[in-house]
Amino acid sequence: MLREDVVAGLREMFGVEPELDEPASQPWAAVKYGTEGLNAVVRARVGDRTVIVKLNPERGIGQTLIPWIVQEYGISLPRPYSTFEAAAVTSNTGERERAAYSLHALRDVLPQELGRFGAALVLKDLGEIDGLDPSGAIARWSTDRIEQALVGAAAFHAATRGRDFPWTVQRPSTATIWADRELWLAQLDDAAARFPDIVTPEVHTTRRRTIDTIQNWHPAKDAMPATLVHNDYNQRNVGFRDSGDLVVLDWELARVDTPQRDVVELLTFTLDAHTQVDELLHLLAVHWQALADNGLEVDPDTYARAAAAEFRVQSFDRVGMQLLFGAAFDLPYLKRINRTVDQLVALTQE
């Protein structure tokens, strides 16, 4: 969407000429949104108020950014990225966030929607959001902040249990994760060569073993109820309003999965490699109890086994994707989340 389209859309919506602020630069914006477009988030002044315009290109990073990185930085995949099961999560994402803003179950964590035009959502400007860190550089959240984010996620997890959302990708299974084994191994091998201080020989061996044994441990995830998950639930998208209430942004990667997906993503980014088992178990228990409080009761052993499986998936799937991004961009959190996820996997070994 071009700048003039945004101006025209706001003019028609509010009846006054808007002024756009220049969005903060993101190194991948030109690839993801096009060199003549705008960044994902634009603040605009219309009359005596400011609003946020959120743009969602119809194609996702699985069709733009990831193939570009693979080609430009010589990442060797056994076949085109688009042919893997994982590509569906990051492709054709334009409708997802717009659909998410229509869900009653998410009303408490979303900014107020003021309107929409084309591929754009017009949202209430919340100003500075406490804890929100688009760079992902903040090293660790406090325990009470993590607890609040887990409780908030559990509310929309429980409210969406068992529902079908045709606008997004349905839950993964042991079969689909195993089918992408070649992708996980290729990403791991590239990261070991590109970042030897992060993916050390020991880390490589451990994650390789995790991938090779997917069929043994992943069925624990299949046993969990499925819910809608944000799927990028970390401090780059999660923060707190002036009132202290939780706010969750950027829903274009939302999908159906086990609720532990959001838990594991959050803990990977907001804990650290010094986390001890008592703290981890406490935080998992907070989410488990909040699910029950919202009407989704899960056997505690089933929950724990699925959480352990989710940390393993995280180590080669989501963290693997971040390592791929790291080939092209300087990510301040890259080393930290790799060390953290390895610690969390180790703490949940049976």
Task: Indicate the CATH architecture.
Answer: Alpha-Beta Complex
> Which strand-content bin applies to the residues?
5-15%
Q: Helix/strand/pairing class, anyone?
A: alpha+beta
Question: What's the N-to-C terminus distance?
Answer: 49 Å
Number of helices: 15
Instruction: Let me know the average pLDDT.
Output: 93
What is the class in the CATH system?
Answer: Alpha Beta
How many domains make up the 3D coordinates?
1
Runs in which pLDDT lies below 50 for 5 or more consecutive residues are none
What name does CATH use for the topology?
Answer: Aminoglycoside 3'-phosphotransferase, Chain: A, domain 2
**C-alpha-based Rg, rounded:** 20 Å
From the spread of the alpha carbons, the general shape counts as: globular
List the helices and strands and how they pair.
Layout: H1 3-14, E1 19-20, H2 29-33, E2 41-46, E3 49-55, H3 65-72, H4 94-100, E4 113-117, E5 120-124, H5 143-159, H6 174-179, H7 181-194, H8 201-212, H9 214-217, H10 219-222, E6 227-229, E7 238-240, E8 246-248, E9 255-257, H11 260-270, H12 277-293, H13 300-316, H14 318-326, H15 334-347
Antiparallel strand pairs: 1-2, 2-3, 3-5, 4-5, 6-9, 7-8
